[in-house]
Amino acid sequence: MNDMSNMTRTKAGQSGAALIVVLLLLIIVTLLGLAALRGAIMQERMAASTTARSMAFQVAEAGLRQGEVLARDSNITFPASGCSAGRCAMPVPNSTPAWMASGFWASGTGFQTGTAVSTSAGNLTPKFVVENFGQTTAGVGSSSCIDASKPCIQSVVQNVYRITSYASTPNGAEVILQSLYKR
């Protein structure tokens, strides 16, 4: 009989303390799991964003090179003002270039589209403009020539172009690149 009364006394003394401790531990483990899950989702978003920006950069770089080839190989005529078919007039000093206007790259009139680039997000097409930056004289004031086997050219007038290329990906990454090109 004595054994039965000890068992009854022991059960009555616990009164559910183990249940409360286990529930608290379960809540803590759940919160740690949610924090880890949130961190993993954030890292996945950052990786996707970096990949999309890298794709947009590569496509914009391709558009920049296509614009440079156009400036190198073509006799370019420019409009009197603004931009038309990827050619932009000489920008007015201290004014905003036409390609910086809101919606310029969305409308299809001022820029030229380049050759599509195949990416993991599909074919992405760069857009670019070639701006007239006037002329410059190169070689003025040089006293000697570097290559003695060729005739020395004292001054050369060169056309200067600013090429601006734009690319975007379906998930919203956008990149604009520029280069100055002389010929």
Describe the structure.
- With 183 residues, the chain is α+β, with helices and mostly antiparallel strands.
- The protein has one domain (2-182).
- Helix content is 38%, strand content 25%.
- The protein has helices at 2-14, 17-73; strands at 83-84, 87-88, 112-113, 117-119, 122-124, 127-138, 156-168, 174-182.
- The strands form two sheets. Strands 1, 2, 3, 6, 7 and 8 form a six-stranded mixed β-sheet that branches.
- The model has no long low-confidence stretch (mean pLDDT 86).
Question: Can you tell me the residue ranges where pLDDT is under 50 for at least 5 consecutive residues?
Answer: none
- The helix content is 25-40%
Taken together, the total number of domains comes to: 1
What is the succession of H and E elements?
A: HHEEEEEEEE
**Distance between the terminal alpha carbons, to the nearest Å?**
110 Å
The fraction of residues assigned to DSSP E strands is: 25-35%
SS field, number of helical segments? 2
Number of strands: 8
Main sheet summary: 6 strands, mixed
- What is Rg? 33 Å
> Globular, elongated, flat, extended or rod-shaped: what is the shape?
elongated
Mean pLDDT over the residues: 86
Query: Class by helix and strand content?
Result: alpha+beta
